[in-house]
User: Fold this.
Amino acid sequence: MKFWNSKLKNSTEYIPGEQPGDVDTYIKLNTNENPFPPSKAVLDALRNSCNESLRRYPDPEAKDLRSAFAAKNGLKAENVFVGNGSDEIFSLIFRGFIEGTQTAAFPYPSYSLYNTLAEFNGIKYETVNLGKNFEYNMDGFLKKKYSLAVIANPNNPTGTLCGIKDIKSFLGKFKGLLVIDEAYNEFYGDTALDLVEDFDNLIVTRSFSKSYSLAGLRIGLAVACSDIIKGFLKIKDSYNIDRLALAGALAALNDTKGFNYNIQMLRNNKEYMEEMLQALGFTVVPSRANFVLVKHGKKKALELYESLKEKKILVRYFTSPAVSDYIRISVGTMMEIKTLVKELSVILEA
Ligand code: PMP
Assistant:
């Protein structure tokens, strides 16, 4: 740590879900990746982009992808920014859109990377607790003069949602910058994108990691008023998105049929998984994402996590007190869900 600065020394490390070296020997339901592969159209576009043009830098402003996303969603390209995953966008927000003297607010429990990135960037933050059933309490974000609030919608790890009506009425009262993280939006809809036209203090982020099955490609988007987008373009690394990622994401956006098919399969599998888990006696938190947070009266969450891992099934266990009674399970393929349910019933009987 000899050369680490104080922000680096004093911040809490973000611990992502395990990515074991021998990942293919596991049923991996711990990081909310999409269980289905990218569509053929996307893989073809990626293969076709593996050519001589890789010697050239990519478009620093990702204009084609921004225009395509804007056209698809009734926006203007000047309202769209492309980041290296939505994680990069959060990092840029803490670097460029809040002062070190100001305070941010995040929900708890939520995506703890917000906390880590705020710390790395020397930003103070407070947390606002979700309710008893993990519902959002937006009034909690009005208790103090927060300069920035980041809300995952649906939330991770709970899968719970803040309704668009509530977001709209919150924006009527909140004077800081509101970031709505819609990484899991496309599975069930209900987006805040349309509000960007009316509120210049709103940033909506999207991810290609979940619904587009492209976690490995690293593409995220921010949608906001053109002034905020100009700020993002100024602060980002010069070529933050590589040529392959741009090509793959563009093909994914254009492949509406493949996208809809993927989402429908995911929803069917989620419904099946929820039914089977309930039949095993699990309490399932109602989720609007591609994962569910569950607990069981007969077995501790840590024991469930460890027993499943022994059987080569990875789920997510959190030590954080609000959710330490639960495990979070990403929706898998039908085969994966069937194996999970079979192994869980053995574990619960033991
Ligand atoms: N937001 C939330 C709420 C998430 O759970 C995740 C993934 N863990 C992300 C953002 C990160 O998305 P990306 O892969 O686009 O960086």
Notes: The pocket of 4'-deoxy-4'-aminopyridoxal-5'-phosphate is lined by residues 32, 85-87, 111, 152, 156, 181, 183, 207, 209, 215, 220 (CB under 6 Å). The chain has a mean pLDDT of 96. The longest strand covers residues 103-108.
